[in-house]
Amino acid sequence: MTAFNQLMAFQRETEALSLVAERLGWDQEAMMPRGAADQRAEETAALEGVLHARRTDPRIEDWLARAEATDAAGGRALDLIARSYNRNARIPARLASELARLTSLSYGIWAEARANDNPAAFLPTLNQIVALKREYAEALSEGDLYDALLEDYEPGTTGASLTAMFGRMRPRLVALREAVLGAAYQPPKLEGVFPENAQLRISKACATAFGYDWTRGRLDMAVHPFSSGSGADVRITTRVVETDPFNCFYSTIHEVGHACYEQGIDPIHALTPLGRGVSMGVHESQSRIYENQMGRGKAFTGWLHARMSDAFGPLSVRDAEAFHGTVNRVNAGYIRTEADELQYNLHVMLRFDLERELIAGRLEVADLEEAWNARFLADFGFAVDRPAHGVLQDVHWAAGLFGYFPTYTLGNVYAGCLWQTLQTQVPELDAHLAQGDASPATRWLRQNLQQHGGLHAPASTIENACGFAPHEGPLLDYLEEKFRGIYRL
User: Fold this and answer.
1) How many other C-beta atoms can be found within 10 angstroms of the C-beta atom of residue 55?
2) What is the pLDDT of residue 457?
3) How far apart are CA 247 and CA 245, in angstroms?
4) Which of 94, 120, 134, 411 gets the highest tally of CB atoms within 10 A of its CB?
5) Could you tell me the residue ranges of all domains in the chain?
6) What order of strands is seen across the sheet that includes strand 227-230?
7) Catalytic sites, residue numbers
8) CATH says 159-486 is which class?
């Protein structure tokens, strides 16, 4: 075997073990009995130790020195393996295992603290996680600690560039929100109780409409919906609130966007460095364009209105036109995952600023709840009513995912660019969406983005699909046109 083939065979096993580790995480959030938390933490740490040893195996350096790629995909794979090796070699094995153990254990601690509105039960664990993530960032950093963490989720992005982008976005978002909340016309709310079984049936129909392959996936329940896996095994989760069916439907469609990206990657890349989505920002572009531009668009909400009327009887909002406004209603709410498109990015900006301060050491975990509440009041104009609606609402910090939050807004920006191009290239799309058929869009996305997996860098992946470098303009233009129309401004 050539050095290239030896390296790729070794990498194939590493990728397979990584998927096993991910499956342990899926099981913990969707199926695992509560009493297994301590044992699962040890299992997760043990597997992470094995993976870290493989990712830093000295043979990789030798293989990389001798390997020769025969095509662009092979060259990109070598670049990604070298990047992974160089980063992992700087992380002590002890630190990698301890992070895996603690973040596995912390999930149950966070979930119970959230259920009981008890930050004091979780913040000591979070303090340990932040200390470990600072140590992790210091091992990797050649400058800003937060930038080192961003590289895990959106390679090539910096805190400074995100701050600049958020600074350009905020004024237009705030101005539009003020106009919308002050508008004379306000869309009606959906009233009623919507039984779980019927919600899940519609949820599955939505997943099918957006191209989810059930032969390679399944739908389960979780406290915080997520997608897990790649290739032949990509699982999604959702949650049900019987007075808020949109929570279930749009959580499902969002996760289907992630899942379809993974299911859509060319099988030739399976179990290689190219066999996963290239970054979390690009991943979020898929979940957000599925959920928002398509799923909350007037054509698809008309179809959803008919399905809900069939399942639940006459709705409190009986007109499909008004129902479109109901789905997109701008609410004074606390929860990021339930936020309307207009305010969602303001939730992300809050978390981005706070976690940068935590990693930099300018904000201590003991002061986090007070800082969160003060910032929320300043940004949204009303006070947090309970910790589960504030500092405890997201799982990300419990999972050690510092640097992840800004990729949500970056994904929205990418989705805005993709949507602008998609509308031009697939003009018949609305007619299909009105019939509950998103296949023209999913085919376009699969051909122009999803199939390539990690073949190109994140920004290049979007530019190749759109024909222009990504920027926030298309997203802001889309939001202004949509919400000014709904609110009759």
Assistant:
1) 19
2) 97
3) 5
4) 411
5) 3-140, 159-486
6) 219-221, 233-238, 227-230
7) 255
8) mainly alpha
The total of other beta-carbon atoms located within 10 Å of residue 374's CB is 12
Instruction: Choose among 165, 167, 99, 169: nearest CA to 131.
Output: 99
d(CA 91, CA 68): 27
pLDDT per position as a tens digit, 14-67 = 999 999 999 999 999 999 998 999 999 999 999 999 999 999 999 999 999 999
Identify the band that residue 332 occupies on the pLDDT scale cut at 50, 70 and 90: confident
The position carrying tokens 């995909």 is 73
| Chain segment 306-320, per-residue pLDDT in tens | 999 999 999 999 999
Tokens representing residue 33 in the block: 């009995």
pLDDT of residue 128: 98
The pTM (predicted TM-score) of the whole model is 0.95
Of 172, 122, 78, 114, give the one whose Cα is nearest residue 387. 114
pLDDT at 1: 87
- Cβ–Cβ under 8 Å, residues 89 and 73: no
Query: What residues contact residue 54 under an 8 Å CB cut-off, 6+ apart?
Result: 10, 13, 14, 17
Using alpha carbons only, give the angle 181, 184, 188 rounded to the nearest 5 degrees.
75
The candidate with the shortest Cα–Cα distance to 359, out of 143, 101, 104, is 143
Q: Tokens 């802001």, residue? A: 476
